[in-house]
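Thread amino acids onto this structure.
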């Protein structure tokens, strides 16, 4: 088996599983899981900080990331306003995310990933080498920044809601 196909055999199923998990969490009632949300906020913050170091390489990358984070934060606030909160007798405090916003972010991410895969295919098909900077793109950083900003704001808002819920409903517990 050619070596370049081995990468696809590993990455495509992993990518499909990640996308399936992401899409499944955009629909229906979701329990508020404090520890997981705090961990995700921390991971997204670390990823955002590490990616901002690309600004040392090219200021356009940092600009793309920062614009994406700001737009993502605004979308996160809109997402919080459109989120419905419910109380489940078994799961406790739950939320129903707005599926349109989740679908939009998923489509943007998948579209950008597909575009980058197509670019890599063209580069490998040319076999004449590639520009040293072909993997770095302000647009890619913008899309990643959208996700970073959105999820940090959205999960933080959910945790704030959950804290208020716990204070007003001391007898109801959640995960």
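Threaded sequence (175 positions):
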């Amino acid at each position: 088996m050619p070596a370049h196909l081995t990468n696809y055999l590993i990455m495509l199923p992993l990518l499909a599983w990640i996308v399936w998990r992401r899409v499944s969490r955009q629909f229906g009632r979701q329990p508020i899981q404090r520890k997981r949300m705090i961990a995700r906020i921390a991971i997204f913050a670390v990823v955002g900080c590490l990616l901002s170091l690309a600004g040392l390489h090219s200021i356009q990358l940092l600009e793309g990331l920062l614009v994406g984070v700001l737009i993502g934060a605004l979308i996160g606030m809109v997402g919080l306003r459109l989120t419905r909160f419910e109380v489940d007798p078994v799961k406790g405090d739950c939320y129903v995310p707005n599926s349109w916003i989740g679908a939009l972010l998923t489509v943007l991410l998948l579209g950008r990933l597909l575009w980058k895969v197509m670019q890599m295919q063209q580069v490998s098909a040319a076999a004449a080498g590639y520009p040293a900077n072909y993997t770095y793109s302000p647009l890619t950083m913008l899309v990643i920044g959208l996700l970073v900003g959105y999820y940090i704001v959205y999960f933080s808002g959910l945790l704030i809601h959950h804290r208020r819920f716990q204070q007003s409903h001391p007898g109801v517990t959640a995960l």
